[in-house]
Amino acid sequence: MSPRIKLSLLAAAPLWLVASSGVAHAQAFYLQEQSARAAGRAFSGEVADTGPQSLWWNPAAIAEMDSAEASIAISAILPRGKVVDDGTVIVRPGQPPAPIGGQSVSKNPINNGFLPSGAVAMPLNERVSIGLAVTSPYSFTTNYDSDSWARYSADKTRLRTIDIQPSIGVAVTDWLRVGAALNVEYTDAELGNALPNLSAALPDGKQVLSGDGWDFGWTAGVQMHNDWATVGISYKSAIEHTLKGSLEVSGLVGPLAGQNRTLDGVKAKFKTPAQIIVGGRFRTTDALTLNVQGIRYTWADFDAIRLGSPINSAIPENYRNTWSLAGGFDYAATPDLTLRAGVQRTLTPTRDGERDARVPDSNRWNFGAGGSYNISPSFTIDAGANYVAFKDETIDRITAAYAGTPVQTPVVTDGRLEDAYALIFTLGGRVRF
């Protein structure tokens, strides 16, 4: 198999390592559901809150703890939406452009899923605490039907990540907390998509790509506080991932039959974005606290997937930097019951003209409500519910199978993401000991 043919096969599924194959719930393929408390107020103020459930956003959150505490949460994520063909055509060699064929509407291609998270922290003395958070910031399963109009760019995708974050928080003064953490992240992915044979009368071929790897990043943050306000600032580094896996190609016939094989040792490098997080919590009365948070994502780091030996090339992605803003409140209705609500606005890092059915992302609004109830002095239940509304958006990335060869087969994509939304229900608990 020549390097050019290898690359053209991979180009039919350019996001095999980190693809989300549809809408996520923070932006692109990032999931933010790492705390039930946070979900209830639409992820506003997390960088300025305290306790292990805020560790993902700011390791300074555990400084000055007076007792050990653990938290756990699980989110049920129920996405809905349609990926619709508006006239996509395929151009086989020596043939005029023809409709892509297959189902013109793919409903609910992203599977329902459950996302767990947990954290624990304990004080070493009155100023220093250590903690550990375990989260899954990039995880989902997508399943397009084999005869979907999107089959040449997206078929079946499975992505799992585990982020392990050991942390330390220190109260430097009575008003300043600082924290630092190491992010150890494991990624495992498998992706399949169809490959066109040279005649529309022939069944499609198929490729399956898989890979995994361990990589590292870091987080650092501060919190400045007084009797009525806390302001938090943190930085989560970009992580350069290196995954090693295999490419399996099957079902190609005629002149393409020689490409059916398994290629082991495929390596790819890509970056997930850094996050610059700024937020505050402001107690306006004994019962009411207002929250605000903004995040800048350096999605431009995800400019390409760089393929190493034996392919030695790169696939452009060209994401743009973007941001999210959130505001919300906590209201202590009784000494044991706290109610929350919030709203979050997030812009997509995907660009018009480069958005495909694998990541048909769009701008969205996230509306959250929830609360906490103290079952006892040492145990609290947290719950949150979110409705995420996505803007209808174009799917318009042009691709080509077997690019740069005599059998180059362009796919001129013309589609839309329509009527997309997600319901998310998060339940968690906190125990102090």
UniProtKB/TrEMBL annotation:
Keywords carried by this UniProt record: Cell outer membrane, Membrane, Signal, Transmembrane, Transmembrane beta strand
Keyword Electron transport: no
Compartments reported by the entry: Cell outer membrane
Family of this protein: Belongs to the OmpP1/FadL family.
Annotated protein name in UniProt: Outer membrane protein transport protein
Organism: Sphingomonas molluscorum
Membrane topology, from the record: Multi-pass membrane protein
Primary site of residence: membrane
Signal peptide annotation: 1-26
